[in-house]
């Protein structure tokens, strides 16, 4: 192993911390990965509605982490939902920052039943709505809505991992992205 990489994740949620640790261990296989989750305010509603609010939540968490902690990379994931022309869906924005460059990525959409989306518009959080619909407890720190609605063929962590994997591209090829 060469030196240690310190990663600060703007959440204490183990699903988000594990996703970040996984992608940094994958991309930096010869480094020791010190990945820590911290409480970081999103400064958006607990259940963001719309792509803008969701992206801002992740960017706000990273900005707080950069201001408060010293690390090699900062990252945050923010789940949101939106009513698209083709139906309601949930998704996440991810942000990775190395102190000088920032990359924003987005997960794929998971179609949401309209009744569940309507509950979000009434102020409920998706995790709570899913716990009620599927009689689970604290699903947001486990497989999430994604796990429940795909019969665990995908999970909240797998979706964050994919989005973070893609968001790393600018850090892997800076000469191409900084032209």
Protein described:
Helices cover 42% and strands 23% of the residues. By secondary structure, the chain is of the alpha/beta class. It has one domain (4-109, 154-174): Alpha-Beta Complex (Maf protein), CATH 3.90.950.10. Strands 1, 2, 3, 4, 5 and 6 form a 6-stranded mixed β-sheet that branches. Helix 1 (14-27) packs across helix 6 (156-167). The chain is globular. 44% of the residues are buried. The model has no long low-confidence stretch (mean pLDDT 95).
Q: Ends: how far apart?
A: 32 Å
| Count of discrete structural domains | 1
Rg result: 16 Å
Could you report the average pLDDT, rounded to the nearest whole number? 95
- Largest beta-sheet characterization: 6 strands, mixed
Strand content: 15-25%
Structural class: alpha/beta
Given as residue ranges, the uncertain stretches (5+ residues, pLDDT < 50) are none
- Give the helices and strands as they follow along the chain: EHEHEEEEHHHHHH
Q: Which CATH architecture would you pick?
A: Alpha-Beta Complex
From the structure provided, what is the oligomeric state, counting identical versus distinct chains? single chain
- Which CATH top level class fits? Alpha Beta
State the shape: globular
Catalytic activity: ITP + H2O = IDP + phosphate + H(+); XTP + H2O = XDP + phosphate + H(+)
Keywords: Hydrolase, Magnesium, Manganese, Metal-binding, Nucleotide metabolism, Nucleotide-binding
Pfam families: NTPase_I-T
Protein name: Inosine/xanthosine triphosphatase
